[in-house]
């Protein structure tokens, strides 16, 4: 329950911090940190326009997407406190429940009959497929290292063996961070601020959503950021007592947001055709972690 | 005993009376016969699942010897699956066949074959005498062949059917070899002879015997590289037959493999590695080819190959568990495999039935010609969607449960594995994850292109939903798909019997289903409920909020373009184009295009087809080589009667004289020796 509340709080400011970082780095004053949340509240108050091509799939998809993210959020633990849903192999459930949301956002995009949205849907399906192996191998290595198969137990036992595991945790943070970028369609995979529909991935899929539905999708996006941020936090806090862990949580979330913002300020988006290779390369970083674990366990060399 | 005889008598009576009654009654007669036989066999099956294995010895004949009929929990589990799919399939088929009601003779034949198919399938799950087993197997194959070639006036259908028949007989050759080998050495046709025989064999001998049976059954099941008959036979058959073939017929191979694991005593670690390698390749290859198919049923057929791969992964993990004496691993593997067998039977038959609805409404299965069907056939679309989500393995449906058990097995194995197997497991996890991701790409394409957007072609006939009674069995299947997803523990209890057979047989377990391994299923069920409830709550909040807000409709946002046509939609080909580009090395794509050139372009076209690379190398090339070799003897078949009479005379002379010449030779050699 603790993690649920913390993630919700982090979700409120995460995207705001990103855009604030970007504006400061480009020499502007920029909007307030809570601006994305205000935008969403405004959207909830608006009416909606539906395309006459769409069917009930388009109407129910945002709700399913939103609830899939919320359920995934319930799985994430915080230090010693488990998530509301916690069992052996819960990380498999975590990945698959997020995939359910993705399935529906993809078919909702196809429901509009627009070729732009079809293009975005196609890319989303392909890239998310490539990002999955990295996640599973990462968690597999951690499971091997700790001998546990649930999020909370893995994270709790991660650093009991030896402090070298912190090095692996840094690598793991990199992998999770990149997965966060892919899942949320941020640089360097996707540029949310581009104005050309042909080059977007996630943004182009939700072109036809408006009002309440768009609000749901955007707020799910905010939570997704914070979920991955929380996973990264969990890599480091281990069994720290709460008085250290909670400040660390916010510090790391803030750091992740600032880094995301800086990447977006200084980097250009990859060429679309290079994305697949790049994402699959993440898997090799995961493999590196796997071999690191083998070394730690003395099974290797 | 009497029930077994009644079971066979019902089938025989059905076969005899079907040709003499009118078309409507034929269907009803078949369905009644199947319902009665389902009740009889289901009674045995449920008894065996609750712990009382049934065993009869039928007297048999001089040739076969006594025929043992043993229904243990494994048979029971498969019998229940077969019965369920046949009931729903038969019911659905009743309406599907309505379109062909004027072809009386064909319907008679089809009805007879359908009834025989059910009887033979159920019998081969119970019979434990190798000769009778092979007879039942053969009956099953021929009746399936007749069912497949229902529309035999089409050349494609007939070709697909014959392709299936030939490949199935290669499978029979292997099975016959295996069974004969055992019976020659032991003098018994009873399956139990296989156990005694393999126990007496050397290490390699037992594995060889297992592999003989495994390859034989793998052809039936459709493991890569023995899968090539599947993508032809499934699309050619009528929808209810495709559903049954994919749902249960190919599972007879899975049953065979599992039965052999129970019977043969061999080194299961090696066998496990072999099965796992083949399975992960099957899974990946199946889905990789499924994505590029444009024929909806062919796409589903390749998906069967993928799902067989997932079932195989479960079996392989179970074998490793048996080999290493790790009972948690063994029970996880076999439970996952058995549950996925049921799950696949449910969602794959549902997918084929809905594809049949689409075919009957539009008369095409080419996804590029379809689109927007959800508005005309909302119920079919919803059913297809649920099956698609389930087959992708997403919660809250049944596919997730079995895949989850298999994942748990892999991660469980990871904890106790050595370095080499660790790297192997890594590839298995990678494979399984990619299978999941690719399946999502495939089914978002299939559902999105066929049912969503606008219609890509105008049809000259009315496209409408099928009758409710035809959809009713589909709702039954859907109910189970959801039910397993939200209450997995209930089905796990049913699985206890069959899984225990495996673990106890090897003496690796005395306590079944350790809490640590399967305890996750209760929270998964709860989480699935939570997911459904949360979605409903959010959807109703949205509904309520929108009551007070202006809701309007307009055209799809075309980024400024205001006159889009249906042809400008994303097509199935373009949806998977980036995937195809990445995956070029493993696919065999042929393109024919005429580009748009100049200011006033003339007619242009673009076509692309994907072909199976393995089929090209393993089937087409050898067949061509054999053909060219045999064509050297073509001069023998010259069409003149005189030559044929000459061959006959030469044959008779040969038959008479060869023994005489042989004797003469012997005499001559004796004579030489005496000199």
Task: Describe the 3D structure.
The complex is a heterodimer of chains A (301) and B (675). Chain A is an all-alpha fold. Chain A contains eleven helices and one strand, in the order ααβααααααααα. In chain A, α3 (56-75) packs parallel to α9 (211-237) and α7 (165-183) runs antiparallel to α9. The longest helix of chain A is centred in the middle third of the chain and has 32 residues, at 115-146. Chain A is globular, with a radius of gyration of 19 Å. The model of chain A has no long low-confidence stretch (mean pLDDT 87). Chain B has 675 residues and is mainly alpha-helical. Among the domains of chain B are: 267-545 and 569-582; 638-674. Chain B has 26 helices and five strands. Chain B has helices at 2-17, 23-49, 73-96, 104-126, 130-148, 155-186, 192-200, 203-221, 230-236, 239-249, 251-263, 268-291, 296-324, 327-362, 373-376, 378-391, 398-415, 419-451, 468-486, 488-505, 515-518, 521-547, 572-575, 577-582, 613-630, 641-674; strands spanning 54-61, 65-71, 551-554, 588-594, 605-611. The radius of gyration of chain B is 28 Å and the shape is globular. Chains A and B meet through β1, α3, α4, α5 and α9 of A and α16, α17, α18, α22 and β3 of B.
